[in-house]
Prior knowledge:
The protein is of the alpha/beta class. The protein is built from 9 helices and 11 strands.
Amino acid sequence: MKNFIVIGLGRFGTAVARELYSVGKDVLAMDVKAENVQNIADHVTHAVTGDGRDPAVLQAIGVQDYDCAVVTVGDDVGSSALITMRLKEAGVPKVICKAQSHVHQRLLEKIGADLVVFPEHEMGIKTAQGLARSNILNFIDLSPEFAIVEVDIPPSWVQRTIRELDVRAKCKVNVIAVRRGSEFHVAPGADWILTEGDKLIVLGKDADITALCGK
């Protein structure tokens, strides 16, 4: 997808619009408040003041020519539902919406939203995961079950090889890289000797990663 329209310029919508623009996407940002539009104008391709609930406004900005629309007015259930419906009626191929509850999610999905997100809920889960696994430095969720994480090695692993530790069989995770200082070593061999300060990048199930972090 190359071009996006973001409707609703609160903190979440502004962050989405700015990040998409920063990675080279064509971004039109829209909000009913002129102040919000003015604040983002220098950080997107186009910024306009308008009401996404009005089909005439959507037609005027050529919304049907955009690959994806992101509706971030999640605090107003009625408005987000109506905007989503208008966008699908206009023929936007993909519509992503912010929701504030599971009821809101079901409503948006029935109207035609292609993807519904809960930013605060998802950030809360990630924060809790980070707190629960105190030695995890970074993690990427791949699915509800699997993740890639960067983790400090347990003290008992220092000066031992990956073969000795038998990480895959005993911990049920795959070591996909080792970070030593500023250097990354991808797919280290079984005879790789771990040293103090090494960071492991591992792939595995959440439960197995949690068990590894408890060592």
